[in-house]
Amino acid sequence: MLEKKIHNCILEIINEREEKVKSSEEDSFGNDFLGLLLKAHHDNSDSQTISVDDLVEECKTFYFAGQETTNTLLGWTVFLLAIHIDWQEEVRKEVLNLFGRENPNPDSIAKLKLMGMVFNESMRLYPPVIGFERKVEREVRVGELILPANLNLIFSTLALHHDPHIWGEDVNQFKPERFSERVSEATKINSTAFFPFGMGPRNCVWSNFVGFLEQKTQQNERERSLNWCGLNTLVHYRHSI
Ligand code: HEM
């Protein structure tokens, strides 16, 4: 029932876009993600064509993979900044220094170093995706281990992000300064121990910097317009691992 509703809801958006082109109100499907998918759907060369069902599935994947994760990150970041007023002030200063009252632009947003550190620390403490799975396709040796085919492996982001051997005894404290150098410096002994976006060829499509810009832009708006206070009495909520 719910699945059908979601399917129809996306179809409506698709139809609306197609109608605009059919009635010549618009001369293309658009350059955004949906526009590119619609172009592929209407492409006459077989290798490029995707079915309407695939198109809807792609939209669902992007929506669900992107919505909850981003909300979670922004929610925890606001919370952490609310209880760490010193960092809140530092980040606000950074934003005001770079943009003043101007709108953020992609070039200067890349210079938001402190904000990037805060996001990393927020995703370390409260990773929006707490783990992911891989299935072993055929027997493979990994170091001293032999992994048989069809084995399901679970990688716990939450566990590794809270391992004191990797991060130190202050592992449960909010310390964005860990990320003041490259991420591999923060993890000391294991450069792959920080993986909020997963790992390997199927990692998050949004993990590159361009995707991260959006988050920084949103946080930026909040930094300039709000003061989070009155939460000094709160302490970190700790996940049970
Ligand atoms: C803070 C925000 C986000 C976090 C922490 C996050 C995290 C992740 C993780 C852990 C995976 C699984 C990776 C793996 O199996 O190795 C993933 C996959 C994916 N994410 Fe994200 N994500 C975020 C935002 C987004 C956004 C905004 C989008 C879309 C605009 C998105 C699209 C996807 C897609 C399409 C996949 C599947 C990739 C594939 O299977 O090839 N994510 N994400």
TrEMBL record:
Membrane topology: Single-pass membrane protein
Gene3D superfamilies: Cytochrome P450
Alphabetized UniProt keyword annotations: Heme, Iron, Membrane, Metal-binding, Monooxygenase, Oxidoreductase, Transmembrane, Transmembrane helix
InterPro entries: Cyt_P450, Cyt_P450_E_grp-I, Cyt_P450_sf, Cytochrome_P450_Monooxygen
Compartment annotation: Membrane
Family of this protein: Belongs to the cytochrome P450 family.
Protein name (record): Cytochrome P450 CYP749A22-like
